[in-house]
Sequence to fold (112 residues):
Amino acid sequence: MVPFSKSSKSAASNLNLHRRFHDVATFVSELGGPNGRVIEKVLIANNGVAAVKAIRSIRRWAYEVFGDERAISFVVMATPEDLRANAEYIRMGDIIVDVPGGSNSHNYANVT
Fold:
């Protein structure tokens, strides 16, 4: 029996990262250790292109790893202006949280 070399361990771990998992909990259990925390929802507190890119990127990863692009759900924060504009990131979200709009000194972005 030939012991694992550093490169064969690395190759084995790369194969593990590129295989499919049944769900997020299994992924975390097998790759994140016994104290791994499962992320089931992601909060999108940005609008526009950045939000759309983030959602698309994570959905693509979820499809590749779990075979289900909806394995992770998205909570999107939406101002009345975003809702009126029918913003793409809102249509892509799973849960919509209405937040006040207006200038930055009077909306959800001002947390002081």
